[in-house]
Amino acid sequence: MLVIDRFEGDFAVCEDEDRRMVHVRRSEIPAQAVEGDCLTAGASEGYILDADAAARRKARVKAKMDRLFTERSDSITPNDLIRCPWANADPLSQRYHDTEWGVPCHDERRLFKMLILEGKQAGLSWYGILKKMDTLCAAFDDFDPDTRAAYDEAKIAELLQDPGVIRNRLKVNAAVTNAKAYFKLCEAHGSLDAYIWSFTDSKPVVGSWETQEQMPATTPLSDEISRGLKRLGFKFVGSTIVYSFLQAVGVVNDHLITCSFAKGNGNTFSLKAKN
Known about the structure:
11 helices, alpha+beta, single chain, Endonuclease III, domain 1
């Protein structure tokens, strides 16, 4: 089994079971493969995606993260860490704040998933999304764009009856619309990762807010990306939603300067217009 670590030009750099890094030609792996996917040798030639191995690996990683989080929590006192105020509301928000929010992400599938989830949050709280995360991922096929693009009316009707999802017809319909728009984006810009990070020259934008009230709901950056996504056909990608998305995937790091998880890196960027 191989696990895709990253892509470099015409090759996928993969880790084998002995933790050695090997290079596999992109032409030998499925076109929809992304970082973190597991590969096994095909029956004839090349490699195929191994969903079962990926699920086992994901479970192992989650168990490890849970263990590390527990050990970390056990070794600190409340006075050791200062968090952004919103993260103190409940354990789910705290874990999300400490382990995901503001961490730069280049995983294509996670970027797409977070963009869709931020759209589903519109008019709701992020805590509500966190509570439904497992059921949302199960209902929407882990937000795989290939699968979502093929949803028909029967699948949409099924989702609208599922108590584990946000049963808003416009948001459910956007599951299909945004998957199709995603492939249009990839045709024009290579990937969502390349598109989103190109606006900041691949450098996180670090905020310098002292209070949560100072933090903006939108910025010229989110305005520009929102307009670009709308031109490509995406729905539920207004500037406020996009700014929340950028914060979530680390394109913007808006941990307050007093937060223990703030990471200033001094990088600057110039806003670029996208066609």
